[in-house]
Amino acid sequence: MDLVPALDEPLKQPLKSVLGPATAKVMAEHLGLHTVGDLLHHYPRRYEERGQLTHLADLPMDEHVTVVAQVADARLHTFASARAPRGKGQRLEVTITDGSGRLQLVFFGNGVHKPHKELLPGTRAMFAGKVSVFNRRLQLAHPAYELLRGDGEETVETWAGALIPLYPATAKLESWKIGKAVQTVLPSAREAADPLPASLREGRGLLPLPEALLKIHRPHTRADVADARARLKWDEAFVLQVALARRRHADSQLPAVARIPRPDGILAAFDDRLPFTLTEGQRKVSREIFDDLATEHPMHRLLQGEVGSGKTLVALRAMLAVVDAGGQAALLAPTEVLAQQHHRSITEMMGDLAEPGMLGGAEHATKVVLLTGSMGTAARRQALLDLATGEAGIVIGTHALIEDKVRFHDLGLVVVDEQHRFGVEQRDALRGKGRQPPHLLVMTATPIPRTVAMTVFGDLETSVLDQLPAGRSPIATHVVPAADKPHFLARAWERVREEVANGHQAYVVCPRIGDDADEGNDRKKAAGKTPPDDEADRRPPLAVLEVADQLTRGPLRGLRVEVLHGRMHPDDKDAVMRRFAAGETDVLVATTVIEVGVNVPNATAMVIMDADRFGVSQLHQLRGRVGRGSAPGLCLLVTETPEAGPARRRLNAVAATLDGFELSRIDLEQRREGDVLGQAQSGARSSLRVLAVIEDEEVIAEARAEAAAVVAADPELTGLPALRTALDALLDEEREQYLEKG
């Protein structure tokens, strides 16, 4: 039997554990650490220097913290209580200081004896616990602590080195216990196989991996930490980019049918009828797409663009090019509202080019069919028949397109709208319906910073539309602080009435629907989730049904108000949208179902209630629904959050710029990167521990170039077994499928 390599050794084993079984169990359940290698890659979050104390003045409420501080005084009090009626109850209050602030520690009952003996004035220690407030003062109740004596054998062994590493910890396992566990397994780091090719490592002056692991866990200087982090960032960036480069290489080996439009076909006829000229950006992106479609391996292209930059028009021209070349195109939309909207706008744009064989139909024409889950049986049967015979050149639909009974005559192009809303399996199932792999165009209106595109969408070539068509109007955005200044909210409703009086329409967006099912879901979500600092102790989010009722009876009395949300019957949703588009409704009170693709040029105002409950990018998407015509747009962000809080800073950032790429950077910085291989798809921990997608743009770009060169020279990585092993560790089976199907 082969010996298990040192780094693959499980922390918890039936016969002997590397760590104590209880510690190993907590690490597996709460930190996702199962092997010696996992623990070695659980890096310190920050470091404390001997003699340097943490800033107690900046402690966050309700968070589990680790601080290094000195005991200022300790007092033992006795008191009477239900448990100790004769005044024999004991409470130890210890005040600690770091020079910038003071913090009280409290211990009760039998828990006072040990700290009373050990936490004497002048003692320095590490303390860990949850920050709470008692009598308007910050405190840690029953914190765990570790004395820092500065001499003595135990301290020298445990805290050797000038820097004390502080690890990402949990309430069940303090930082210093993780540190001790790391010290136990640290000798195994010398056996770590180095995934970076020697030439790359030496050419860039990077540490060997074993040395980097030793220095990140037991640094003697800040320079040790910097060198270790620089090396470990390269590991993460390079291994990920190799995975993506191999995906691109594999795609380039697949066969596909080249789709070249006829010079006198439906695309030419469509272009001749356009009532406006394409922007330079639209022409450039179309050229990139047509060049890809003309090759004999599948296009894999990401089309990202600002809200309203004309992505749908670019995608339609690509679909018409494929129809010209004898193929079919499918547009996959995330919701029925959006699928119906696309179908309506595409058939309107095409006019008689979407009416083949009809009286008055154009010479070059093709059927455009809609396929959704809620269609009637007869309409559905006809749509399926049109797809199977090739009568329909273009189909627009939801996930209903993916069902087994859907057959295409010759699927040549798949366009996926708002890619992040689809599971990998859904996209893969649709791509599998072509006789040969179809070309793939992924569209998103969520602007993505370049580095994120290189990581999350690294197997796709990227096209960017950042130019708005002529005639689009600016959107003014303002924060409405409803709690501080209630008259601002009253003025917001007056502005809505003014827009309607001028012949325009408005949206009011709420975070919740407000029906019984909605309430149940909210309770379920709340049960498993601790709200962030600025959301604790708050009322439930405002709901569409309640707000619509209040508005019709109050500030918007007399206006034609309708509601729209995701749990309405699809026919009802479509009818509401049609009435709103036709100008028969003044105000639409909706959930984020209107976030993407809804296009009503006459809608000029939007009021977003509880705007702090939405993400930065989502607010930008919502705002893009107004200002789509010649009249200027107005977006009002209503919030009750305090002026100095992080939520208000987010809203101020949205109000300050219309640049979606800038906002996406802010969004990413605030949310921090999740797993760039799609945490939702794999359910795994983040694969990024030291690499920051926004800050490390240069490392990612260089790693991408190096990875492409390595894969071009050796696609199977036969000469780089350690890199192959690192890839296998990064890409467990589910993640491998995620990339395969991405």
Structural overview:
Helices cover about 40% and strands about 20% of the residues. The longest helix has about 30 residues, at about 220-255. It is an alpha/beta fold. It is built from 26 helices and 21 strands. The strands form 4 sheets. Strands 11-12-10-13-14-9-15 form a 7-stranded parallel β-sheet, sandwiched between helices. Strands 16-21-20-17-19-18 form a 6-stranded parallel β-sheet, with helices on both faces.
Brief digest:
With 742 residues, the protein is an alpha/beta fold. The protein has 26 helices and 21 strands.
Give the averaged pLDDT, no decimals.
81
Helical amount among residues, as a percent range?
25-40%
**Percent of residues in beta strands:** 15-25%
Structural class comes to alpha/beta
How can the largest sheet be summarized?
7 strands, parallel
Low-pLDDT parts are 152-161, 523-537, 672-686, 737-742
- Outline type: globular
- Tally of strands: 21
| Alpha-carbon distance between the two ends | 38 Å
Radius of gyration: 30 Å
Total of helices = 26
Biggest sheet strand line-up: 11-12-10-13-14-9-15
